[in-house]
Amino acid sequence: MESISAGCGDAESLVLRFAPAVKILLWHGYLLGGTGSNVYTRALAREWTRAGHEVTVFSQEPEPELYDLGGARTVRPDVAGLLPVFVLDRYEGYEVKLVQDCTRAELDAWVERNAAALREHLPADLVFANHVLLGGPVGAASGARFAVKAHGSELEYSMRGNEPLSAWAREALARAEAIFVGSAHIRDVLDDVVGHVDRVHEVPPGVDIDEWRPRPRAEALAGLLAEARLDPPNPGNANERLPDEGNAERLAAFLEGDGPTVVYFGKLLYNKGVHVLLEALQQVDARAVIVGFGDYRETLEAAAGPRSLFTGPLEHRHLVHLLALADATVVPSIFPEAFGMVAAEAAAAGSPPLVARHSGLAEIADGLEQEYPPHLRHLASFATGDAAELGSKLSELLALPGPDRTAVREAARKATVTRWSWAGVARRLLEPFIYPHADG
User: Fold this and answer.
1) Total domain count for the chain?
2) N or C: fewer beta carbons within 10 Å in the chain?
């Protein structure tokens, strides 16, 4: 059964208005909260709608009215309770299975249910589907002109080494009018996992540069604590998808004083490399706020020292303030990443990111280095998994004299505004369709 609701938000968009306006069906098979492709979907809906396009978002989000979609319509396709995922997580009301653990009959039925929902809203100028699988097959089954956005998680976690899934994706992508990747790394991964496909356009994800911005410390701390006081109750932290109980008081006490603060935010999974950060912090004079949820949290908390605070997941309303307080944000992932979105958001907030130098994160480091003063460029990245190097560079970054610290913060912000704002991303994604001779 479908549910349709109106999006929210009437602010002016920075996106240049396109001519002519088009009707876009934006398909995303998951929720709209959290990070990664969920944020990507929300941002595109908001920017495209405010630019004058007619946008309908298809997702499994039960409460789309909580998110600013710029006024886009929303539809929740009936998927008969099944949710095929790339990383196992708990989703209330669903039978959750890894894509590769589903039978082909289950996947075909799931694709058809989603495609049927799209067909009910045709005609449209474009179906924009997230994820090679299962977005590619959903787009193809819709019968409409479609594009696919590869996010990386499906390629690495579900498709790599699985030839039947790769063959299915190859067949679907051959019918797509455009395939978008967020980095050169994901373009290479796509070729490696699926095989060569044509019509691939490299368009990095974006950052809301108005939301993520530098703020005075007192303002940022007050904003963070105010948002934490609005959190719903979570007795005993029983719901891992909610912020920890009592975060407002805990954060106020932990962030008291002017000591240097390091932040990590993201999933608490082994592949995210948080254990590398915790090891590095043993040699760093700093406190650390660790934000997120995941099956590795208990292990990480046991390994953390007394100067680390785990908050559970925080939303953007919290993070825009927390990152403005952070003297550095570390992205220590030891597994390939499509694009370092969290690093770009931190940079926009004026918190210099220190990232593991690999895959899409290396492209973030390259962008930062192009803006950093030459004698500080080495502080953008560290060797993957090397806790000693991370600790050394983190100590150096936190100890920079005032003028150098200001230069790094301003350069990090400039790198994001110049390269990774959502305004430019939203326009570039439509160029192959509105301006078919544009170079993607």
Assistant:
1) 2
2) N
